Amino acid sequence: QVHVVESGGGLVQPGGSLRLSCAASGSSFRIYTMGWFRQAPGKQRELVAVITSVGSTNYADSVKGRFTISRDNFENTVYLQLISLKPEDTATYYCNERAGAFSWGQGTQVTVSS
Questions:
Q1: How many Å apart are CA 29 and CA 10, to the nearest integer?
Q2: 67-78 pLDDT per residue, tens
Q3: CA distance 3 to 16
């Protein structure tokens, strides 16, 4: 079983940027398609970015052009670079296998506010 720990969130002003990290345990990490999800208060969790084992990526329309997902299979880490942040990006961000097969971590809070 792979376990994940997210970090890197914080409070930023609109237009700001952050880099989120997801450290995963387990030697099989590199074979999985990984995703970053987010959940805002009162809303369902949504998938915002996906990266395959070989680095192909896909994004939700709401973040396309502003968020970049990447991974380092040697370090068992997935990253999410966020730029041009908007108040509607405020949420708790989680990483997991694309279909949510792993146990969910605690997430990392991103708050975009002036």
A1: 26
A2: 999 999 999 999
A3: 29
